[in-house]
From TrEMBL:
Protein name as catalogued: CaM kinase-like vesicle-associated protein
Cited function: Does not appear to have detectable kinase activity.
Positions of the UniProt region annotated as Disordered: 328-412
Species for this entry: Betta splendens (Siamese fighting fish)
GO MF annotations, alphabetized: ATP binding; calmodulin binding; protein kinase activity
Matching InterPro entries: Kinase-like_dom_sf (IPR011009), Prot_kinase_dom (IPR000719)
Gene behind this protein: camkva
Family per similarity comment: Belongs to the protein kinase superfamily. CAMK Ser/Thr protein kinase family.
Length: 412
């Protein structure tokens, strides 16, 4: 379908609201995300259903940038494991993005409903994700917010494909990227450490996803009290920086050595040594017969329900708030000497040199906020971010929100 409705960069070539209404019948709001509202939409001619994301320009520059960025990236991609752009409109007051409608469930829900679940099932999921990411990387596109909430089954048929959604934080890799972005628990060490980064961050996130799907546990976590988010996030980021995770018993006792090898190769702290998506596809656990057929459902499901049933691990978007506070503190402390445990921070949700603590946002929906390319001064002294909460939405950000608790690394 042509996208003649929208030409990015032309200031006055707007669509009228009636053009949208004449072509699509928008139903009620399905959910509200931080930067947009989600609707079910029906094409008035074909009666086919789609998902519509509506961005209000009055909500600010970040919202406008998020919409334009997602449209730009989605117009570049066409892959069967990526939710496809169908149509896009820009009126004077809004952006409308129409996407394929995925009617299946999130991967977690699918696992919980299975009578039998094995490594081979996980391998099938990971293969599809890796193929989509390898395609994106061939176009020099970095997704920057791969996580379980952004992986859904396209429909409810038995052999439905997996599709990747949410490209608001995606970015073209024209040289290494500096601004931190993403969801805290999935951030790669180079993002947390505020180093320049690129496509390898997506491979790290895939390793985190695979770890969770095989054990039901997150690889990095902290047992600090729920209301002590600053301490919890500081410890979380410290563990990520050092790659401090284990294949702990009994959760990994029945998992094959081949699976553990692939996880470890994807979660390699040194991004130059990390497996690429294309290399991971060639791994015996993905393309060979190394994935075990043993039923691991009971153990995995028990841990999933324990770790993820609550919104605790879906507080995905602490990063932005973190970064906002960070920038504020940078401006206030730029003339002061660096604090002992303080550090410099960047302006985006993915990581800070040392470890950024986070203000938290409860969320259970799979949505990420738009990425912004705002850069912060390297070497400024950040403090802990406060939590600008948007209830019921997981968010990952990119707009100056990840504070740091550790000193900045050299070579940043």
């Amino acid at each position: 379908m042509p996208f003649g409705c929208l030409t990015l960069g032309e200031k006055k070539d707007y669509n009228s609201p009636s053009e949208v209404a004449d072509k699509y019948d928008l139903g009620q709001i399905v959910k509200s995300e931080e930067f947009c509202e989600i609707f079910r939409a029906k094409d008035r001619n074909t009666l086919k259903m789609y998902t519509c994301k509506k961005f209000h320009k009055k909500d600010g520059r970040k919202v406008r940038k998020a919409a334009k960025n997602e449209i730009m990236i989605l117009k570049m991609v066409k892959h069967h494991n990526i939710l496809q752009l169908v149509d896009a409109f820009e009126t004077k007051k809004e952006y409308f993005i129409f996407l394929e409608l995925a009617t299946g469930r999130e991967v977690f829900d699918w696992i919980l409903d299975q009578g039998y679940y094995s490594e081979r099932d996980t391998s099938n999921v990971m293969r599809q994700v890796l193929e989509a990411v390898a395609y994106l990387h061939s176009l020099k596109i970095v997704h920057r917010n791969l996580k379980l909430e952004n992986l859904v089954y396209f429909n409810r048929l038995k052999h439905s494909k997996i599709v990747i959604s949410d490209f608001q934080l995606a970015k073209l890799e024209n040289g290494l990227i500096k601004d931190p972005c993403g969801t805290p628990e999935y951030l790669a060490p180079e993002v947390v450490g505020r180093l320049r980064y690129g496509r390898p961050v997506d491979c790290w996130a895939i390793g985190v996803i695979m770890y969770i799907l095989l054990s039901g546990n997150p690889p990095f976590y902290d047992d600090a009290e729920e209301d002590d988010s600053d301490s919890r996030d500081k410890n979380l980021f410290l563990k990520i920086l050092s790659g401090d995770y284990e294949f702990d018993s009994p959760y990994w006792d029945d998992i094959s050595d081949s699976a553990k090898n692939l996880v470890a190769s994807l979660m390699e702290v040194d991004q130059d040594q990390r497996l690429t998506a294309q290399e991971a596809i060639a791994h015996e656990w993905i393309s060979g017969n190394a994935a075990s057929d043993k039923n691991i459902k009971d153990g995995v499901c028990a841990q999933i329900e324990k770790n993820f049933a609550k919104a605790k691990w879906k507080k995905a978007v602490r990063v932005t708030t973190l970064m906002k506070r960070l920038r504020a503190s940078e401006q206030g402390e730029s003339g002061a000497s660096a604090p002992a445990a303080g550090a410099a921070a960047d302006s985006n949700p993915d990581g800070a040199t040392p470890v950024p603590p986070a203000g938290s946002t409860d969320a259970a929906a799979a949505s990420t906020t738009a990425g912004s390319d705002t850069q912060t001064a390297a070497g400024a002294a950040p403090s802990l971010p406060s939590a600008a909460r948007r209830e019921e939405q997981p968010q990952a950000r990119c707009n100056g929100d990840v504070p740091q608790l550790l000193p900045q690394r050299q070579g940043d």
